[in-house]
Amino acid sequence: MDAGEDFGPWLARQLRLADMTQTELAQAVEVTRAAVSAWITGRAAPRPETVERIARALKTDLATVHTRTTDTQAGLPVTWYHRPGYPDGGRDGGNAAAFAFDADVQVLARETCQNSLDERLTENGRPVRVRYTIHELTGERLEAFRKAILWDELHPHYMAVSEVASHQKVGRVVDAGVRDMFEKGRLVLLRIDDYNASGLTGDDYDDGKFAAVVRRQLESLKSGRDAGGSYGLGKATLWATSALGMVLINSTLSVPHEGRTERRVIGRLELPWRSVDGRAYAGPAWLGRPDPDRPNAEVVRSWWADDETVESLYLTRDSDEPGTSFLIVGAHDVASLDQSSPSLDADEEAGDEDDGTRDIEAMHRRLVEALGRNFWAAMTGGGGRLPLLETYVRALRNGEVVVEETKVDPFDEQPSRTRALRAFYDGTTVDRLTEAGQVALRTVPFRLPLSGGRRGTLGTHPAVLLVTSAEDRDGVPNQVHSLRGNRMTIKKSGVAGLPLGVNAFQAVLLAGHAAGESAPFAEEAEEFLRAAEPPEHDSWGQTEELTLRWSHTAHHRIKRLTTEVNAAVKELVSRPKRTGGEGGAKLRKALTVPRKTGARRGAGAALPELDGLDASIGAGGEWQITAEVKLPRADELPAMTPVVLLDVRSGSRPRLDWAELVAVDGCEIEDGVLRFTPGARRAVFRGFTDVGGHPVRTALTRLVLELRAGKGE
Asked: How far apart are CA 249 and CA 328, in angstroms?
């Protein structure tokens, strides 16, 4: 009897499922009620001959009682439970969380793959494997699948939604999905399987991953400290991608529940409010086995399905490795219409042609593109380090291969960035680019603020910047891709003010744990940047969480990091300047530093003084100025503001605006003000003027650069 779930809890649940009392079982197996109670509480175990009688009483086979890895088939059958309408008459027109995302398989790939990364089992060091299977059903296979999902039970609910479809968006989407299935005789299933992941562990109702995904909204219970998700919204993309609002789930658990791990199955349906046979329903519904512990056994819970059931629901997993399979029923890709060129005019035969949203070959292509674009770094290994992720995409029609399975290769999708990251892992980076294919590395200071609204800096995290030459397959050149611990691309940005003639490049910024587990303040940077991400996790900036936990100005630290990164990129990709040539001399003559000998503050306190300058005119016509400041010995140095003025023959000098100010060494810049590092003797900063404020062409101007105390007014 030593197998599967403990005998007592298993037997107690079978009695509830079979609606049988302990007394009735005792009579059926010819023992006392006290004996049955002792089995359930674990104080005793039945004899072998009694086990045979228990199997007959529960209408199951002897092996099921011995192994206890599944429930008996006696008792309450699997069915759909629809949440009743609200007693106060309130109505929901659908799940609001689903409106945070478009019906877009590329958004789906980003969100679901991020979730799988977050749930990767890290103890074995192996990557999480994620497979996307697009499967179109027609004919007998479609009819058999409708029978498996109990379509006859659902049909009245879909009809009720269609009747009011013109009044709300979700109803129109569902109505179109049902019509497509019946009028065109097809249904597209999109299954996402992950392996070496935690699976949906925990109780059906209590706190845990299962309840967070299946029962609740806006709840995120992630396993990893580098988790990408934090809002609990990503799972809504599953239902947003289903034109029928239906997702079926089969999970293999990393931690046993009820003594079992395999084939934990449930379905969830997202429909708007509806009235069926005079009874109001709130919206969601669940496919499962009625829970005998709930009033009238109406509410359903997950059940441990057999192999035949999961096969009929297209939920069969390839192995017993932990993870979860999500089956999106009626998958559509509305966003793909933006990528296509229609062959017909909008008004010509509008209803007769396929709109392309269920084109399985197009879905395959767009999934591969999205996975390569967003997760190239997670799929890259090197230096003895395995990748975090492997992804695969395939397309079938009625079980036959339409598009062969594709393993997404980061070198195919993002060759330059993948080369840069691998060089970082392999330790083959260089200080400066001198040949094509090299990868240059710079560390960029990321100054983390103190939490709780306190002024000051917690510490400086050295983010890692990698720069290499671009290739055509990379997409848009001269971009910086920023990422943190889970190695999903978070932020994509260009670099403004690049010098004329720069060779095309690609850059990668690694922050938090992505910069290295031993990097100073990596944990703090990871936490700060995660809080700075919106629900889409596609940027770093001001968020409500950042304001509440740090301050309303905390996002300025990220802006400062961006400025530092752009300055470092420009330094790495700029061609060496000529020294001593006529052109450089002319530019230096055009820039003047007014000397105020003996300038003092108060009673003999010396001020920082400009001591060296270099200038050039950028490709956009802006002045690019590098200035060196001599710092006097003092315990505390005043803040200074660099001011750039046009040098004119008469009258007051017009002041130009800075487009960008960058601290290089011995100082920080905050709101255009220089604050010097205590103990430093020299400081260097760079400035780029705002061309929009130039009254005349840059080449015809002369400048004066001043340092003014305070804010420089």
From this structure: 9
Cα separation, 96 vs 626, whole angstroms = 51
Per-residue 3-state assignment (H helix, E strand, C coil) for 29-80? HCCCHHHHHHHHHCCCCCCHHHHHHHHHHCCCCHHHHHHCCCCCCCCCCCEE
pLDDT band at 588 (very low <50, low <70, confident <90, very high): very low
- Reported as type and span, the H/E element at residue 183 is helix 169-183
Longest dimension (CA), the chain: 115
Distance CA 286, CA 270 (A): 9
Contact (CB, 8 A) for 377 and 483: yes
If one counts every other C-beta atom within 10 angstroms of the C-beta of residue 237, the result is 25
Taking 3-state DSSP, the helix, strand and coil percentages for the chain, each rounded to the nearest 5, stand at 30, 30, 40
pLDDT value for 411:
93
23 Cβ neighbours under 8 A, 6+ residues apart: 33, 36
Nearest to 645 by CA among 580, 589, 694, 703: 703
Angle subtended at Cα 414 by Cα 410 and Cα 416, rounded to the nearest 5 degrees: 115
Q: Which two tokens stand for residue 313?
A: 């629901």
Looking at this protein, which amino acid is placed at residue 531? Answer: A
Is 67's pLDDT higher than 90? no
Sorting pLDDT into bands at 50, 70 and 90, what band is 590?
low
pTM for the predicted model, two decimal places: 0.74
